[in-house]
């Protein structure tokens, strides 16, 4: 199975016999449209049902806690946005459905327990997949290109994110992830000697440089150096995009992540799973291969194939997996 930005990705494309209902027009997309399914089915079920009926309702990719599945080719339109036969969302955007956001026993999006964890993981996977697809399709990520169903036609969708007040944070996270991939697409993480570029809202970090009075870099101060705080805001496109609760604004180079690690061997492949025989993660320019000294952030750990006596594998910056023994 291939992957997008470390998330397992596969295709189950609609048959050409059903193009007339699902994707009748060729398309050169310039944006994306984000949805939530309002049910609890996995991505595989969503795609199989969508491509198997003849209703004029369709979307390109469904994403759950385990994988992303593509049902419509990216060079054809989908009927997803409710903005009409010539609407921008329906004719010029790649559409994504995030799964697992509905509790059928309550009939609401007030989910909890195992399903809430599935939804959180599905949403995290969606950030990675959407950013990678935008990079591969040549669509720059910004507030004008990352749109919700609500932005297109006024429908309350993605419903859980909108009900919880999380849509703006999700949109900004997609933009930040796109920028991270674009800036690191030649095969490395941050080289500033401290934090990885993939700092996220909600993460605890330590101040190792200056903090600033605003995101434009004014009002530098070193008085908070050594303190730790949580990132509570992200100002995409600014010089100092990370805001620390109660302290101020910072660049990645001003911060240190407790999960930051350094590559210790000359060339380290990033794999799609926890095995040296699995595929190397692809990038827009080839393969994800990290050089010695590259700074990365460990975003997950699992057991896998033993390498030099260790079965520990680390997910780095959300890209994919490396043997933990090669990180320090």
Short description:
With 328 residues, the chain is an alpha+beta fold. It has helices spanning 19-22, 43-52, 88-92, 113-136, 149-153, 159-164, 167-183; strands at 2-4, 7-11, 31-36, 61-63, 68-70, 93-98, 146-148, 204-207, 228-234, 242-244, 248-250, 255-256, 260-262, 267-269, 282-283, 286-287, 289-291, 295-307, 310-316, 320-323. It has three domains: 2-182, Lysozyme-like, CATH 3.40.80.10; 204-256; 260-326, no CATH class.
Descriptive account of the structure:
The chain has seven helices and 20 strands. The chain is an alpha+beta fold and 328 residues long. A seven-stranded mixed sheet has the order 1-2-5-4-6-3-7. The two termini are 29 Å apart. Mean pLDDT is 88; it is low at 185-197.
Main sheet: strand order: 1-2-5-4-6-3-7
**Helix proportion range:** 10-25%
- Number of domains as seen in the coordinates: 3
* Overall 3D shape: globular
Q: Which structural class best describes the helix and strand composition?
A: alpha+beta
Helices, strands, pairings?
Blueprint: E1 2-4, E2 7-11, H1 19-22, E3 31-36, H2 43-52, E4 61-63, E5 68-70, H3 88-92, E6 93-98, H4 113-136, E7 146-148, H5 149-153, H6 159-164, H7 167-183, E8 204-207, E9 228-234, E10 242-244, E11 248-250, E12 255-256, E13 260-262, E14 267-269, E15 282-283, E16 286-287, E17 289-291, E18 295-307, E19 310-316, E20 320-323
Helix pairs in contact: 4-7
Quickly list its features:
3 domains, Lysozyme-like, alpha+beta, seven-stranded mixed β-sheet, globular, five-stranded antiparallel β-sheet, single chain, 328 residues
């Amino acid at each position: 199975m291939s992957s997008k930005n470390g998330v397992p990705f596969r295709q189950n494309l609609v048959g050409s016999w059903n193009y007339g209902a699902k994707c009748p027009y060729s398309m050169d997309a310039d944006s994306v449209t984000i949805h939530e399914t309002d049910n609890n089915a996995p991505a595989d079920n969503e795609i199989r049902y969508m491509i198997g009926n003849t209703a004029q309702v369709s979307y390109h990719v469904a994403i759950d806690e385990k994988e992303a599945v593509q049902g419509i080719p990216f060079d054809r339109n989908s009927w997803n946005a409710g903005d009409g036969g010539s609407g921008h969302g329906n004719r010029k955007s790649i559409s994504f459905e995030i799964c697992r956001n509905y509790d059928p026993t309550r009939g609401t999006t007030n989910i909890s327990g195992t399903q809430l964890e599935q939804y959180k993981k599905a949403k995290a996977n969606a950030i990675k997949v959407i950013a990678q697809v935008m990079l591969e399709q040549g669509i720059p990520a910004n507030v004008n290109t990352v749109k919700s169903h609500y932005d297109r036609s006024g429908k309350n969708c993605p419903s859980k994110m909108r009900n919880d007040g999380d849509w703006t944070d999700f949109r900004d996270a997609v933009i930040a992830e796109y920028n991270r991939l674009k800036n690191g697409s030649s095969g490395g993480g941050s080289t500033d000697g401290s934090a990885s570029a993939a700092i996220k809202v909600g993460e605890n970090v330590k101040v190792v440089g200056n903090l600033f009075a605003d995101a434009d870099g004014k009002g530098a101060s070193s008085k908070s150096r050594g303190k730790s705080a949580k990132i509570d805001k992200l100002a995409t496109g600014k010089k100092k995009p990370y805001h620390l609760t109660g302290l101020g604004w910072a660049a990645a180079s001003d911060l240190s992540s407790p999960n930051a690690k350094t590559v210790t061997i000359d060339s380290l492949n990033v794999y799609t799973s926890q095995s040296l025989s699995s595929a190397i993660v692809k990038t827009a320019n080839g393969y994800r291969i990290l050089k010695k000294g590259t700074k990365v952030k460990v975003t997950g750990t699992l057991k896998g194939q033993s390498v030099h006596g260790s079965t520990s594998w680390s997910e780095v910056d959300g890209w994919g997996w490396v043997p933990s023994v090669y990180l320090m």
